[in-house]
Amino acid sequence: MEKRVSMEKPTSMEKTGYAFWFLGTVALAITALAVFNALAGAYILNHPAGGSVQTLSGFERALKPVWLEQIRPRLVFVGSSRVRDGFDPALIDPALATRSFNYGASSMTPYEARRFVQDALAHPSVRQIVVALDAFTGNGGPGEALPSFDETRLAVTPDGAPTPRRALWLFTTRYLSGGALGMNALGAWSLAQLKDGQHAADRPDIFGAYGHMNAAVMQKDLNYRSRRVMRMGDGAAGEFSTMLAAACHAPARLTVFFPPDNMAIIARYRMSDAAGFDVFKNSVSAAVARHNAQCPSKVALFDFMAPNPLTRETLRDGSSPDYVDLVHFRPPAGLWLLRQMGL
After folding, report:
1. Any residues with CB less than 8 A from the CB of 308 and at least 6 apart, and which?
2. How far apart are CA 39 and CA 188, in angstroms?
3. Has this prediction a pTM greater than 0.85?
4. On the CB side of 232, how many CA atoms lie within 13 Å of its CA?
5. Could you tell me which residues come within 8 angstroms of residue 285 by beta carbon, excluding any fewer than 6 positions away?
6. Which of 44, 65, 90, 280 has its CA 20 to 30 Å from the CA of residue 141?
7. Confidence check: pLDDT of 88 > 90
């Protein structure tokens, strides 16, 4: 006789047990994520060199809107990786007796730059916003943004209205998002590598903004950017105008500047498209002049993308004192720039 194999289906009690096990595992994972983000975030914000984490490249678009809300700065910097690398709050705050925040992010689009400025303008603590104008080059238009950028984290919508349910989105971003996990892990690990009394400048191997350009880096950058241009397309020009309009009646003062790319690379811009380079500068200057003629809140414009003591710098003993590469200036140079702006 054939043996009968039991094929009994799981009982309802067994199914319930599986469900409890699954839900319990998920709950523990979410709790662990939230606890880690809370502890790591507090560690970063309270570390003496914590401001230097804002110069790191990682998941900054995800977490920086949360940090802006927590830090409540007076001075905010907005722009691409030039800004992210060049302005270290841990260096700037004691030097200028202020509380600053680096809202820079790699390859920032014109739309993102305008939206981050709008976000900063909406914070009552902010009295001054400094914007690097290379973020308004190219042909970027409305809505163009890189991954991890999320407008629900910003204080206002694109048209300036308060963002609905923003407190909820900030909470979930701060404690439950993968972006927060990545940035907090990177920041906490980086700070943990510093010995007592060390600053980010002492570990350029970790905090790359404090690195020094050498001959090999310079040549590689010249080759990489050999056909690079510096021009403002119609979409970028529109975003710049919208940003200026947002600042027209704002209590915070807006300062915009052409960043101090080294003269070696400025020469490439002129070689590739001298007309576009000049139109970019002239268009910005004209837009700022129109704004200042019409608005009570004036905008200051500085042009460092021209011959000056910084951009004319060459290698000294095979190393650059102020550049990481031909377009990224080091934080001490960023502090020099702020002093030239009278900040």
Report:
1. 260
2. 10
3. yes
4. 22
5. 301
6. 65
7. yes
